[in-house]
Design brief:
Elements: H1 3-9, H2 21-25, E1 30-32, H3 38-46, E2 52-54, H4 63-67, H5 77-84, E3 88-93, E4 104-108, H6 109-121, E5 131-136, H7 138-141, H8 158-166, E6 172-177, E7 182-186, E8 193-200, E9 203-208, E10 248-252, E11 257-260, E12 265-270, E13 274-281, H9 287-304, H10 315-327, H11 331-351, H12 367-370, H13 372-390, H14 393-396, H15 407-420
Helix pairs in contact: 9-10, 11-13, 11-15, 13-15
Length: 422
């Protein structure tokens, strides 16, 4: 991040979200043909939370594009089997619906490839249905493969930085699916950003700006499973559908990367046999959206079990437990997440002499590429969220043992670090 961008952002408490009206009235999205500066991407897309598409130039040197794809642009099944033959992988059935998603099973990679070959030979059909290998943590399982490199634009990734630190999970995935496979209507985990690169094949994306999903709920408040289904035209089932804007439709070609902003609901189709790399990620630009999402999720849980409130001394703690089981995180872990992000940036700033460019490798090794201004911006964003949390009644109700640190002390450490590097 350059100094100008930092000076523009450092005094912001609530980050600016530009109007999404242009996406409600047109199908225009920026196409980035050549490299742009990180600061330009930060100002034009991350901060305003706007989508864009990067050309295939940005993935041309990736090993997976060189080795996983045949000369005619098809999946290279032989090479893929050589690399991953016995690996267990998660496979979803696109023809089945279970809790508004596709049910999954774990099968050997070679079994999926055999199915895929037969599916193609049978005219893209199978009695087994349309199977889709998705949410495969290939990067975590095979870090030595170095199949691709995360573009600098998506490198300020608190989500994976945190889960890498605690060595529990990650949000880096490989998807492989035949023509006709698809993902139902959804928004990404924690309302994070996502980026998706087509290694081969083509996808069709239908994207709706934040807020539009409210018009795509049925009379019971449930989100639509398929936004193209004829039943959405039935006003008795979907009373507000006619108020929804037309989706932003993007055809993503082989090699291209799509940036999906925070909180944008979307539905995705594979128009050809397709392989893609997908990351969910968040940072200082959208951590406020994650915090709002967590508050909304807790409120939803509280409404669901409101009738038990006066009969349980630990009702608030139970709400946190249920929330974590549904979303994957509770308030205490969110606070720990912010602490780890903070500690990495304070350590980084301490290792960088004031006014210099640092080339040491901190725990989050991308910080030296983004620079001390970016680290200071991150700290200011964490400070803002911590201040919001300290004023939140549900956060105040956490039992002392839920937190391994004092948020007030962490906030003081942040303010001191920012002052020292001003």
């Amino acid at each position: 991040m350059d100094r100008e961008t930092f000076n523009t952002c450092c005094s912001l408490i609530k980050l600016p979200r530009q109007s999404y009206q242009q996406f409600c009235s047109s199908h225009f999205v920026d196409y980035i043909e050549k490299s742009i500066s990180y600061s330009k991407f930060f100002k034009n897309y991350l901060l305003p939370n706007h989508p864009c598409v990067f050309s295939k130039r940005f993935t041309a040197e990736w090993n997976c594009r060189k080795h996983w794809v045949t000369a005619d642009g098809k999946p290279n099944f032989l090479r893929l089997l050589q690399e991953f033959e016995e690996t267990p992988v998660p496979v979803a059935n696109c023809n089945a619906k279970e809790y508004n998603a596709n049910p999954k099973q774990i099968i050997p990679f070679k079994e999926f490839i055999q199915y895929w070959k037969e599916y193609i030979q049978n005219g893209h059909s199978s009695p087994k249905g349309c199977l889709y290998l998705k949410d495969w943590h290939m990067h975590r399982t095979f870090p030595e493969h170095k199949s691709y490199t995360t573009p600098i634009y998506f490198s300020s990734d608190w989500l994976n930085e945190y889960w890498d630190t605690i060595e529990v999970d990650d949000y880096r995935f490989v998807y492989m699916g035949p023509k006709g496979s698809w993902t139902p209507f959804h928004a990404d985990v924690f309302r994070s950003y996502s980026w998706s690169a087509n290694i081969c094949g083509r996808k069709k994306w239908l994207l709706y700006p934040p807020g539009q999903e409210e018009f795509l709920r049925d009379s019971h408040g449930n989100l639509a499973y398929d936004v193209t289904a004829p039943m959405l035209q039935d006003k008795t089932l979907y009373p507000h559908f006619e108020k929804a804007c037309q989706p932003l439709e993007i055809i993503q070609e082989a090699g291209e990367i799509i940036f999906v902003p925070s909180g944008w609901h979307h539905q995705v189709y594979n128009l050809e046999d397709t392989i893609s790399i997908n990351h969910n990620w968040l940072n200082g630009c959208n951590v406020d959206i994650m915090w709002k999402f967590l508050q909304d999720e807790l409120s939803s849980v509280q409404r669901e079990i409101e009738e038990w409130r006066d009969t349980m001394d630990t009702w608030h703690q139970h709400c946190q437990v249920i929330m974590k089981s549904c979303t994957g995180i509770d308030y205490a872990e969110f606070a720990t997440f912010l602490k780890i992000i903070t500690n990495n940036r304070i350590s980084f700033l301490k290792s960088c002499p004031r006014g210099s460019t640092c080339f040491q490798r901190p725990p989050s090794d991308i910080l030296d590429s983004l620079g001390p201004h970016h680290a200071s911006f991150d700290l200011q964003r964490v400070a803002h969220i911590l201040e919001c949390m300290l004023g939140n009644e549900d956060f105040k109700r956490l039992v002392p043992s839920a937190l391994s640190f004092q948020p007030e002390t962490l906030l003081q450490d942040i303010h001191e670090a920012v002052r020292s590097n001003a």
